[in-house]
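Internal QA ticket QA-208
Title: Verify multi-chain structure generation after dependency bump
Assignee: T.L.

Test input:
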Amino acid sequence: QVQLVESGGGVVQPGRSLRLSCVASGFTFRSYGMHWVRQAPRKGLEWVAMISYDGSDKYYADSVKGRFTISRDNSQNTLYLQMNSLRPEDTAVYYCAKDSAPIRVFDSWGQGSLVTVSS
Amino acid sequence: DIVMTQSPDSLAVSLGERATINCKSSHSVLYSSNNKNYLAWYQQKPGQPPKLLIYWASTRESGVPDRFSGSGSGTDFTLTISSLQAEDVAVYYCQQYYNTPLTFGGGTKVEIK
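Actual output:
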């Protein structure tokens, strides 16, 4: 079955950087687009970024554009989110999610990785 | 951006009774070329990631009980739980995938009365 395991979260000071990883298994990773979705404490869901199956297309929410970069390594079945210039409002659980190609819904989710931005 | 607005914010329903959640989009999510509504519903139980329930506004994901149903078109949608079970206590979110940025409603918390 599909498994998505995030790592790399933690506590970081404002303005610093962090990289999240998501290792995928149970499906042909290189054939599917992937997403990052976040959830601030006691808040709703916010889509963050998407990358196409081959990494050629990337899309971002306005709230992270220019600061976050999504990437993937299909040889390692791994999705990444490089987060720079972090702000307190970026504090959230970050989920990686598999795209249900050809439609952009999230049919499998990881358990999430908590990022806390605080001085 | 397409803004998704859910109502109510929360509701309490007796076991076995019907629960109805509404979702309204600021722009139609009906794609005229295929006559499909680009609207999905998710369930999030406490301490868990969300789970896909419904897509194309009314198509149940594999394994989802048939007490869950989706309806609506254009800008107005409804998720109905026909007979609420204890395991249905959760927050429910709608999501549009008509265009990017992909956007979610604010969520509706369903509890047992």
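Spot checks passed. DSSP finds no helices and 13 strands in chain B.
Status: verified.
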